[in-house]
Amino acid sequence: HPAAYLLWCVVQDFLFFSLVLRGVERLTAGSVPGHKHVAVFATAALFGLSHFPLTGFMGVTALIGVCWGYLFLRARLLW
Predict the structure, then answer these.
(1) Helices in the chain by DSSP H: which ranges?
(2) Tens digits of per-residue pLDDT, 19-60?
(3) Which of 3, 18, 37, 55 lies at a 20 to 30 A Cα distance from 46?
């Protein structure tokens, strides 16, 4: 059902880019050079892996995750 899929997309975005990205950013701040980049790429990789076993889709969503990650860091909003 399209509405359920759209709701799941919103939930995934919240989980990964609000909670996971912020958490990884906090964990790496002060101890890892370029911690914001590490946080974005680690979160994007996890976002891609969440689409296992659709390997092609995993790569695409990881790349999209990098874009979403940097947009989130810049705006601090999920909108």
Answers:
(1) 2-13, 21-28, 35-49, 55-75
(2) 899 999 999 988 888 899 999 999 999 999 988 888 888 999
(3) 3
* Pair 65, 44: CB distance under 8 Å: yes
CA dist list (Å): 56 to 3, 18, 40, 59: 24, 25, 20, 5
pTM recorded for the entire structure: 0.83
Could you tell me the pLDDT band of residue 79, with boundaries at 50, 70 and 90? Answer: low
Question: Would you state the structure tokens that stand for residue 32, as one six-digit string?
Answer: 């890892």
Residue at token pair 């989980």: 15
Q: How far apart are CA 70 and CA 33, in angstroms?
A: 17
